[in-house]
Automatic annotation (TrEMBL):
InterPro entries: Dimeric_a/b-barrel (IPR011008), NIPSNAP (IPR012577). This is NIPSNAP protein. Residues 143-246 form the NIPSNAP domain. Coiled coil: none annotated. It comes from Lutibacter flavus. Gene3D superfamilies: 3.30.70.100.
Length: 247
């Protein structure tokens, strides 16, 4: 009698510990003009990221856009084992005495000195073909964030399948180093998927993409009826890591 119960427990543990896809929270801080961002950087580096690390949330990415785009934006990428882990960590930070102490200066900043206008919080669920965040090489200094929009949910399903079945392998072949990949579950560009690529520099980025189009497997799958009209828009944002980024 004990053995069947133990077996059921193992299956339950595997499903809810390892069988779930990761959840990524991508926070986008839209900065105010002419307001120094030091207070926000200090909050990330000395309060929020250390507190997340204490809760087992590692490899927190912090980026700014490459180039002189306006308004300036800061991107924070936080990965969780699952959605329940996100809720647990959020609750834990509310009771973290050290975090409260470290974040005090940021929290007490008056509204007229707050360096950002708003925060957009986007949640993304990883897919079976790329279930876990992959920390890039330490010398990665050039990142590309890509968002693929589809005209409906089934079109997005087909595009995700295209990646799961073939495109991830092509990416590996040509040097498109994926950091995370997932299907958005919230945000203002739904339905869509989002992924992040890492490179040593812009030259490595251009070299890798130049190999993608002519790749024989891409040439095969792009002609398949199953994948026609699977997406209708692409957004791409070039990023560079901030000094305290863990990616």
């Amino acid at each position: 009698m004990l053995r069947p119960i133990l077996f059921i427990f193992v299956l339950f543990f595997f499903k809810y510990t390892y069988g779930q896809n990761e959840i990524y929270e991508l926070r986008v801080y839209e900065m105010e003009f002419f307001k120094p961002a030091n207070i926000l950087h200090d909050y990330f580096e000395k309060a929020l990221i250390p507190a997340l690390n204490r809760e087992g949330v590692n490899n927190v990415g912090a980026f700014e856009e490459s180039g002189e785009t306006l308004p300036k934006k800061i991107y924070l990428l936080i990965s969780y084992q699952n959605m329940q882990a996100h809720q647990d960590v959020t609750d834990a930070l509310k009771n973290d005495t050290q975090f409260k102490l470290d974040a005090q200066t940021y929290w007490e900043t008056p509204s007229e000195k707050t360096p950002f206008k708003r925060i957009e919080s986007i949640f993304i669920r990883s897919v079976s073909g790329f279930p876990n965040l992959d920390k890039p090489a330490d010398d990665s200094e050039f990142f590309e964030l890509r968002i693929y929009e589809s005209h409906n949910e089934d079109a997005l399903r087909r595009k995700v399948k295209m990646f799961n079945d073939s495109e991830f392998a092509i990416f590996n072949d040509v040097g498109l180093n994926t950091v995370f990949f997932g299907e958005n579950i919230s945000g203002n560009q739904m339905p869509c998927l989002t992924y992040l690529l890492a490179f040593k520099n812009k030259e490595e980025h251009e070299k890798a993409w130049s190999k993608f189009g002519p790749h024989p497997e891409w040439q095969r799958i792009v002609k398949l009826e199953e994948y026609k009209n699977a997406m209708n828009d692409i957004s791409r944002i070039f990023l560079k890591p901030l000094t305290y980024s863990q990616l």
